Amino acid sequence: MSGTRTAPEDAYTAEPFVPKRGGLPALRAAAAECQGCPLHRDATQTVFGAGKASARVMLVGEQPGDQEDRQGKPFVGPAGHLLDRALAEAGLDPADAYVTNAVKHFKFTRTEPRKRRIHKAPTLRETTACGPWLAAELDRVEPELIVVLGATAGKALLGSSFRVTQVRGTVLEEEIHGRPERLVPTVHPSAVLRADDRDAAYRGLLSDLKVAARALA
Predict the structure, then answer these.
(1) 183 bridge partner residues
(2) Residue 137 and residue 157: Cα distance in Å, rounded?
(3) What per-residue confidence (pLDDT) applies to 43?
(4) Can you give the pTM of this predicted structure?
(5) Residue 58, burial from CB neighbour count under 10 angstroms (0-12, 13-18, 19+)
(6) Residues 6 or more apart whose Cβ sits within 8 Å of residue 202
(7) How many CA atoms, within 13 angstroms, populate the side-chain half-sphere of residue 190?
(8) What is the dihedral of CA 165, 62, 135, 85, to 10 degrees?
(9) Coil, strand or helix: which one is 93?
C-alpha cells in the first residue's frame, strides 16, 4: 500500500475478503483479516457472529461494544447479558440462537488518551461495506427467523427508510439478499440500559421477543 488511494478499506466493501465456499468457521477465519473499511484500523479485532449453523433464529445487532472488541465475541457485555435474560424469559434459548452484528468492528471515540472508549454509531457507508459478511452468515445459517435489534441492524437488512418504532413487535416478510425471510424488529438491548424507565423498556423488549418465540413455535 504505497498510498491511501490503493488501500483496500478505501473501497468500503468487504466483498473481496468473503470466501465463496466453506461454512461458518471459514467465514470467521476470513473475517479476522477483513480490511473492507477503515474501522479495522482502530479496533482490537474483528468480532464475528457466534452460534450454530443449525440455529433457527438469528439475532442481528449494530456493532461490537467495548467488551466485545476486547473478547472477540458478540453480546458479551452488559447489553448481551440483558438480551440473554430477555430471550430466556421469552422462551427462546440463547444457546440455540446465532448472534451477530451488522458491523463487525468496534467504532468508538475517546475524549482523552487512555480514557474510556465511547461507542460511536456506524455510518450507512460502513454498514453497507460490512453487508457481504451478513449476507454470507444468512446464507450459511438459513435461519427460520431474524430478530432485528435496533435501527442500524434494521437499516442494514431492510433499507434506510426502516424505523424500529413503526414496526417493532411485528412479523415482517421480506426478501433479504435474495432470500425470503421472516423478521421481528425490536429495540437494541443497549437502548433498554440507557432508558429513563428501564423496567418499561425491558417489558417492551420482552414483549417483542415473545412475538418472535410465537413465530417460531
Answers:
(1) 146, 172
(2) 13
(3) 95
(4) 0.93
(5) buried
(6) 82, 86, 192
(7) 16
(8) -80
(9) coil
